[in-house]
User: Fold D-2-hydroxyglutarate dehydrogenase, mitochondrial from Papilio xuthus.
Amino acid sequence: MLNPWTLLLSNLKNTNVFNQIRCASQVLPQLSSEKYKVIRKQFGNIQPSDVDYFKTILSEDRVLTDENDVLPFNIDWIKNCRGQSKLVLKPKSTEEVSRILRYCNEKRLAVCPQGGNTGLVGGSVPVFDEIVLSFMLMNKIISLDELSGALVCESGCVLENLDSYVRERNLIMPLDLGAKGSCHIGGNVSTNAGGLRLLRYGNLHGSVLGVEAVKADGTVIDCLKTLKKDNTGYHLKHLFIGSEGTLGVVTKVAIHCPALPKAVSLGFFGVENFENVLRLYASAKSSLGEILSAFEMADNDSISSTVQNLKLPNPISDYPFYVLVETSGSDETHDAEKLTRFLDKEMESGLIIDGTVTSEPAKMQTIWNLRESIAGAGLIDGYVFKYDVSIPLANYYSLVPLLRQKLGSKAIKVYGYGHVGDGNIHINVTVPKYDEEVCSMLEPYIFEEVAKLNGSISAEHGVGFRKPHYIHYSKDVTAIHLMKQLKQLMDPNHILNPYKVLPELT
Assistant:
C-alpha cells in the first residue's frame, strides 16, 4: 500500500513539484479545529449501523474506514487544513448520492463533498468527522454535441481528461488551471474556478449550460439543459455554481466548449516595473484584440521561487516583473503578423526589455510550467499564507510592497502573481512554519485593505473554511442575510459542507 502522503501528493502533475514537496511533507498538519479554534456543531455521530447501511448502497470497497485509506481525504494539498473524518464514501451514480444524502439528512450526519481536493481555502476537506463524499468514481463523459460544443459529463471527470477528449474533436475546454491534471469539473463548477484563460472565455457562470445537483434531503434537481438560451423562470443552475457544495452537491455538468484554436503562440517577457505591466496590458488589448487569450503577471520572487526551489528553467534573464501573453486564433499568418507588430512596437517603446516567443508546444509548456508551479514552489520554503483577491487594476500590485514592509524579516518572501486580465492577484507569504503572530499581522489587515479598494477577498478559489468570518469585507449584510436564507431553505439541517462559506448561522 502507498504511504498516505504519497497518495495525497500524487495529484501533483509536475514531477519536480511532487518529489520535492513529498520530501518536505512528512509531518501531518495540525487539526483545523485546534489550529483555528472551531467548535463542533451538534451533528450526529457515525455509528457502526450507519457504515453497514452505506455498504448496502455501495460495494464494500467504496466504503473506506481504514485510517490510512481515509487520511489523504482529510488533508488539503497545501498542508493548511486537516480534518478528522473516519468515513469516505465513493458513489458511482446520482442515485447513490441521493440515497446517501437522504440518509445523512435524516440522521443529521454532516457531509463534506470532495472532488480532486486541489482547493486552497480548505473547502474540500472536513473540519471534524464529516463524512467525505468523494466523486472520483463519477467520471463518465455522457455526451458531446460537436456542432454546438455542448459537453455533458459527470462531476468527477478530471479537467485535463475532458480537455484531451474535446481537443480530439477540435474543441477546447473553456477552463484551464494549473491543477488541471487532478481537479474535477464538479469542483471547478462548485467553486466557480477562474483560471488562466478567463480573459478569453469568461467565467463558469457563462460557460456552464446546466447542472444536475442533489439537495441535502436527496432531492435531485435536474437543470441539465444544453441550450445557450433558456429564459424560463429562475436560473437555478447559478445557485450551485460557486456555492461550494453548501446548497447542493453537483453530480453532472453541461458546459459549452469553444472551437479549438488553430494557431497558438506564447510570449514571455521581462518588464521593468508594474506600471509598465499595466501599459503593456493596455497595448495588448488594443493591438491583439480578439486573439488575446491570456495575460499573466509574476514578480521576480514568484519566478525565482520556481527556478530555485523546483529547478525549472527560466528562458530569459532576471527581471523585476514577468509577463506571459498568449494568443489563440484561427489564422496562423494573420495572428503572427499581429503579434509581430505588437512585439516590435513594445520592444521599441521599452515596455518589453527582453523576451521570447514560441508556438512550439514543448517550449510553451516549459514557460507555462514556470507560471503554474508558483503555487506549489513556495511550500518547499515552509508554510505559505495564500491570498486570492481581486483588486482594481490601478492598485493591483499595491498590497505586495505594503505587506513586505509590514512583515519585514518575519517572512521569507512576499510575492504576487496572477491574472491581470481579470484583476485577480495571488499573494503568497512564505514563513518557516505556521506562525500565529504572522497570521494576526496578515488577517484581517489584508482583507481590510482589499475592502478599501472595493475589491473581493476571494477572486476564484472560493471562501471555503478559511474565509467565512471575513466575507463581510466583500458582501453587504443584506446579501449575507439572503445567502443564509437560501442555505436554510435548501439545507435546513446544515449538513452540507458545514463550517464553510457562510459565517455562523443564527
Q: What stands out?
A: The first strand starts at residue 63 and ends at 64. The CA atoms of residues 223 and 235 lie 9 Å apart.
